[in-house]
UniProtKB/TrEMBL annotation:
The keyword Transmembrane applies. Keywords: Membrane, Transmembrane, Transmembrane helix. Residues 24-274 form the EAL domain. It comes from the Bacteria. This is Bifunctional diguanylate cyclase/phosphodiesterase.
Length: 274
């Protein structure tokens, strides 16, 4: 009887794996077609200065219909489509940035941030693609921020070499979701970093003056001490913005200041920290 149940369970498990592989293949094929049909778009979320809330940078985030990048980006990483999609994202973001600089002058953002996955960093020729894209769009390297996660550069290797080469080109490197991966502080000794994006989890519950606030305080001391720039992620309330400012944060990003949209309002009028 027990053996029979185990067998049945195993069969169900195999069917489930099959379903998952089918789903993955289907999604992959749809993404391939969507890329050819030009159905991916970018939205841009402001990164603002505190306490005035004026736009300083923007982060580009990819969109594909109603599906979340948290779902389709990992699929694109596994099937390799991220390489081509990533090149499109980089080219589109840089071209948009240059157009904004021409259109908005002093109100245009100073920098644009592009998320880059581990697979892209490991791809031979990635740094050349970035250099060519900058040259092709006429954008100075210092205006670009490449966002990488701790996991992508953990363990060194080609990914870290790519980051070092980008940094040498003059491109800014941001560590995304900082504090949630492995060996967060250790990475600061081995990877050239310009911007620390302090994860939303430390911003949440700041007002409770518990461990979140202690860690957020320690992180701003580390960034200041190392001469890096800190960006607090996921700021949703005026209260969080005020607490962050009091702790010493001067850059923030989150729904309180603006959601990701196709064209943020570059008018020099900010959402104050409150
Ligand atoms: P991320 O790079 O950490 O981007 C921040 C995510 O938090 C975005 O989700 C953004 O919409 C969301 N967010 C911003 N402010 C708030 C807030 O106040 N509250 C809350 N709850 N969320 C906020 P999104 O656009 O769904 O992207 C999710 C993740 O997908 C990104 O996390 C990034 O890891 C990846 N991703 C998005 N676009 C790209 C891309 O162009 N290339 C690559 N390689 N990955 C991307
Ligand atoms: Mg990011
Ligand atoms: Mg982030
Ligand atoms: Mg995040």
């Amino acid at each position: 009887y027990a053996a029979k149940t185990t067998k049945a369970r195993f069969r169900r498990y195999v069917v489930e794996l099959d379903d998952r592989a089918d789903e993955e293949a289907r999604l992959g094929a749809e993404m391939r077609a969507a890329l050819d049909a030009g159905q991916f778009t970018l939205v841009y979320q402001p990164i603002v200065s505190l306490p005035d809330g004026e736009i300083r940078y923007v982060e580009s985030l990819v969109r594909w219909g109603r599906s979340s990048p948290a779902v389709f980006i990992p699929v694109a990483e596994r099937n390799g489509l991220i390489v081509e999609l990533g090149e499109w994202i980089l080219r589109t973001a840089c071209a948009q940035f240059v157009a904004w600089q021409a259109a908005y002058g002093e109100f245009a953002p100073e920098r644009i941030s592009v998320n880059v996955s581990a697979r892209q960093l490991a791809e031979p020729g990635f740094v050349e693609v970035v250099a060519d894209t900058l040259a092709g769009t006429g954008m100075a390297p210092g205006h670009l921020i490449v966002e990488v996660t701790e996991t992508a550069v953990f363990g060194g290797g080609v990914a870290v070499r790519a980051v070092e080469e980008l940094h040498e080109l003059g491109v800014n490197i941001a560590l995304d979701d900082f504090g949630t991966g492995h060996s967060s502080l250790g990475l600061l000794q081995t990877v050239p970093v310009d911007v620390l994006k302090v994860d939303k989890s430390f911003v949440d519950n700041l007002a409770m003056a518990g461990r979140h606030a202690v860690i957020a305080t320690a992180l701003i001391q580390v960034t200041d001490g190392l001469g890096l720039t800190a960006v607090a992620e996921g700021v949703e309330t005026a209260e969080q913005a005020r607490s962050l400012y009091e702790l010493g944060y001067r850059l923030a990003q989150g729904y309180h200041f603006g959601r990701p949209v196709p064209e943020p309002a570059f008018n020099g009028i900010g959402v104050a920290a409150g």
